[in-house]
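Model it.
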Amino acid sequence: MVIISVSCFFILRVLKQPGPGEVEGGRGGEKKQGTTDPQKMKAFRIVLTNLVIILVGFISVVVGYVIVPFTSLDFKCKAFAIFLAYNVISVMVSPVLHLHREGRLHCRKGPESQ
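Modeled.
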């Protein structure tokens, strides 16, 4: 999880930097505004969403390990079941969000189909 989180941070940092064709000052010193590539922004949002999901899942595991020494065995079993179920559900969030954005969920259409 730590390697994935650090990789996401570096990807986000690279996506925020201007690309080879994007110059911050423009030609002759004029300022280019709003010239960010739409694919780059889409990639940034997807990676940021995945990073938030990973960090929330990681925090739940850390909380679980902090609680363990101070609780009874019965509570430990229930808490770990809840934390593991939460991690499994959090893994499914990103693909479902992507399908929703693309409008491929049968239960509800995404923003592009409206």
